[in-house]
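Why this split exists: single-chain examples teach little about how molecules sit against one another. For that reason, every record in the complexes split bundles all components of an assembly together and asks for one structure covering all of them. Below is a record exactly as it appears in the raw files.
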Amino acid sequence: AQSVTQPDIHITVSEGASLELRCNYSYGATPYLFWYVQSPGQGLQLLLKYFSGDTLVQGIKGFEAEFKRSQSSFNLRKPSVHWSDAAEYFCAVGSPSGGYQKVTFGTGTKLQVIP
Amino acid sequence: ETGVTQSPTHLIKTRGQQVTLRCSSQSGHNTVSWYQQALGQGPQFIFQYYREEENGRGNFPPRFSGLQFPNYSSELNVNALELDDSALYLCASSLPPGYEQYFGPGTRLTVT
């Protein structure tokens, strides 16, 4: 069964500092990988995705993520965090299975940005 | 291009009642998935509809059911509501099931 682990429940960074959010997945083959962001009381917005090809993927809002098969990881990075980045971030793994795509989410990492 | 919309925004129901939540998919998307997000948790996959047929289901009991209409909009029905059904219900649409999903703002259901 596929699963996602986000080991950091809560992270605090200073505005302008770099950010890395960790994500580890479990899946038998090459997965589809996603990062979503959720502001309080809102739905999820897709930041970036990995399906195949280049293992470093660029997303919106200056985010990037790197797929490392050997480590079963898909960490999210941003070189300089802005106060508006404060939100909850979810890593997800998707797998085509029997004609549909099952997407499994991690439990999320809540990002706090301090001035 | 219109994004995914959901109605209502908020809903309060009593235990044992039934509820229907609605979702309009993004223009051109023929696949709709529903998720339940309990407070402090990640979304949990309920089921997916593709071309009006349920083509995948998560670990939810049969009292969670759905429909997809010819215009690809969708409904989630929950019978015999329980307190633990209180959550944010998210709808996501996509092109054929293998593509990335785009989420609506959700419906907050409170069961008392």
